[in-house]
Amino acid sequence: MVELKALSAATGCRILAKAEYLNPGGSPKDRVARALIEDALARNPGVRRVYEGTSGSTGISLARVAAAAGLEAVIFMPSDQAVEKAQLLATLGARVQRVPPVAIVDPGHYVRRAQTAAENDPDGVFADQFETPVNWKAHYTTTGPEIWRQTSGKVDAVVMAAGTGGTLAGVTTYLKEVSDEHVQAYLVDPQGSALYYAVTKGVCYSPTQDEGRRKRNQVDTIAEGIGLYRRTANFDQALDAGIAGAFKCSDQEALDMSRFLLHREGLFLGSSSAVNCVGAAKLAARLGPGHTIVTLLCDDGSRHLTKLWNEDFLTAQGLVACISPDCYASVYG
Ligand code: PMP
Description:
The protein is 42% helix and 15% strand. It has 14 helices and ten strands. Strands 1-2-10-7-8-9 form a six-stranded mixed sheet. A four-stranded parallel sheet has the order 5-4-3-6, with helices on both faces.
């Protein structure tokens, strides 16, 4: 857990972040991967291969934990995710297939491809991170208690984006229980995602989403690993535990925050970490000064060199990377 001193000074709240990018597999997904592999072995002791659909982080953690358990990881990921994650997966010895991004209703969707491949392999299991409670329980038993212990229980609120929703669900469920409902949990959602509306209106539909992308269920953002167009069992667990509110985060805000974190905090991070910190700044503005807010730094910038940290890519998206202190205005909400 680190204190984001510049962001705290700018917002008037104490903003703490769990440095999950320092885990051996480089993201919070190490926690989930270990639990998924233990679950797979418990369900099927003869298993040889574990299959998963992932934007990258879960695959990278699974590949390492699978190797340690003597298993092979077979990973399906959407082809629009940063190529360095696929390269890393292949280097780690996983079998990787990059598939075109399509809607979950399409059998070619990366999660459905992983499920079908597992069903056709007598020695394979589908890890199923989006739907299995094993995911959020891994955070309920580790991330949540660590936040409580590392803050000595002095935490007012947590805020984070959701991919599967496992982190938000596990952390929220634990902190609500241990604090007797004192800790409030908030979602921050990247542009184009509909989870914001799942929290604020109870529907998973975004009125601002372009019709074509909506039909294809595509989330239109440079942020990776977060934002969704459907409600998963893990996200529903977070809603059941109680989410107090939600914030939107545009790609430009995330981009500005990523540069703020580098230039002011010395932290070189990926897009979901930037989105999380935009959430922390917006939550600080809503709660007012003096509160303690916890978020997560999920992965580091080296997994995003071809996208978030690539000027040509950003220009093609119509985004402008911040070079002067004035452009940090959006960071402060
Ligand atoms: N950040 C990154 C980089 C991720 O890969 C993910 C998960 N796909 C998340 C954040 C969100 O975590 P969760 O799946 O627990 O919602």
